[in-house]
Amino acid sequence: MKLDIIIVNYNVKYYLEQCLYAVREAVVGVDSQTWVVDNNSKDGSVEYLQPLFPEVNFIQSKENGGFSKANNLAIRQSHGEYVLLLNPDTIVSSKTIKECIHLLDEHPEIGCTGVSMYNADGTYARESKRSVPTAKVSFYKMCGLSTLFPKHREFAKYHMGFLDPNESNEIEILSGAYCMMRRKALDEVGLLDETFFMYGEDIDLSYRFIKNGWKNWYLPTPMIHYKGESAHPSTIRYVNVFYQAMIIFYDKHFGGRFSLSAWLIRFAVYFKALITLFVHFFRYCKSFIIPSPKYVYAYLLCDKDSTAFITSKLKEHDILVCDEKEKAEVIIFQKSVYSYDEMIFSLIGQESRKRLSLGVYEDERGIIILPREVIA
């Protein structure tokens, strides 16, 4: 077996459906198997997806034990030469997986590789390439120096802004949304640390690869990441889980809980979390004073037979269809008409100043999948 693909799901069955369709296209000709670990979802994910994807191995957990624990469940049962950890709210291109396999085949010194991730609005996701968040690197980010000098080799080290996102490079930290690992290297460094419930486990694992002499690599092959569908970045839960994960990482790797540097790092992380909560609270209050626009405009790329149906469904949700792409906030592609590659590259290559989000019309079931909403 060449490759095991492991996806952890929690109540995002429609996003996972598109992810699995894209994976199915991407692994044609690859000796692989796909595993979905369901973390006790309440939306009927397994019952919905199993008939659609009989080739997928589904593991149903009786509890939501977190991202690390769920991945480890499948890793222990798999035996492929390479292991790919993939988020359920992603869409890979047809070349993404094969190019990563080729890189690992040609370079035995590389332990794991990531790719260039794009948000659902077509913008580049900076977490595609990062460095180890040491105290100094984190300070530059927290105090805003990385924002002021986005391409500085020292100040912008957190997201490695000095590296061209369109070029292949050695990096330090990979994102858990897409991380292809060499089994031999994974066996050497150990499985994901289950102390991390969600977030931070990718930083910890990447750092352990480096400490054991392996290289982490970045490939500029694209994929879409809807990002955070099971834990929205604007929620208090996200802030709490994310910053607690940072504390776990620092305590584990940098000097212990009671050293001066550890206390300084803990103070900085909690201070940053407090600021983040304040910003979210301010935005929440602002939404009552300045309400968001009543309508969102969508641009359709579908056949004529589907236009009327999509238009009526969108109208029920106060979304209007427009004839001008420049006016729209979201482009909705018909899955049976357009390939996932066409969807991805149309977003990434857009020249319009206005950001456009990706929507998918799943015509077999009459479902419209948007970045933050599913119309069924």
Q: Any overview of this molecule?
A:
With 376 residues, this protein is of the alpha/beta class. The chain is 38% helix and 22% strand. The strands form two sheets. Strands 1, 2, 3, 4, 5, 6, 7, 8 and 9 form a nine-stranded mixed β-sheet that branches. A six-stranded mixed β-sheet has the order 11-10-12-13-14-15. The mean pLDDT is 86.
Give structural attributes.
single chain; about 375 residues; alpha/beta; Spore Coat Polysaccharide Biosynthesis Protein SpsA, Chain A; Rossmann fold; 15 strands; about 40% helix; about 20% strand
The separation of the N and C termini measures: 37 Å
How large is the share of residues in beta strands?
15-25%
CATH 2nd-level architecture of the largest domain: Alpha-Beta Complex
Number of helices: 12
- One letter per element, helices H and strands E, the order comes to EHEHEHEEHEHHEEHHEHHEHEEHEEE
Principal-axis shape: globular
User: CATH topology of the largest domain, what is it called?
Assistant: Spore Coat Polysaccharide Biosynthesis Protein SpsA, Chain A
CATH superfamily of the largest domain: Spore Coat Polysaccharide Biosynthesis Protein SpsA, Chain A
SS-derived structural category = alpha/beta
Number of structural domains: 3
Mean pLDDT: 86
Helix content: 25-40%
* Oligomeric state as shown: single chain
Q: Uncertain spans, ≥5 residues at pLDDT below 50?
A: none
Largest sheet: 9 strands, mixed
